[in-house]
Amino acid sequence: MTQQSTNPWVKAAQNLTPAPAPQAPAPVAPREVPVFLAAHGGAGATSWAHILGGVDGGLVTGLNQEAPAPGAELVLVARASLDGIDAAKSAIAIHGYDRFACVLLVPSSPTRMPRLIANEVKVLSGAITVIDTPWTPGLLMRRAAQLTPTDISPKELHKITASLSQVGVTIEGETP
Question: Of the candidates 83, 137, 139, 129, which has an alpha carbon nearest to the alpha carbon of residue 104?
């Protein structure tokens, strides 16, 4: 029996080239949080920004002075009233319909929308996607900073987030 001076396994291991060091994953670009802009005072932009995890951008009239970060999706918020819809139309006329992802329409009352207002919503939806929110009396009885997604029924919340997702607005904690 002949003796080998080195172990064949050790010799084979010495001839291997070392594996490349694992690379760190590519950094993920930070996702822009949607900005909710009120078409008029009392539209509900602050409340919906808190509920949906967005940023309250204030009144749309300040859009030119304080432009949101590039790439941030702008959601225009308006009440389902003649004044609210007119304010949304005016904002779209001034800034352009392509500046906003959609209009989030907040009901003015728990009753069915009057025909005149429903017709104005149809006109508005001819220019931009309109997403209806549910009448939720609890939103009126709490401060906006205290509102959370649990203040809306899961079914309604999913419906809103799915509609926002269709227009390219991603919401934190969104369920597929």
Answer: 129
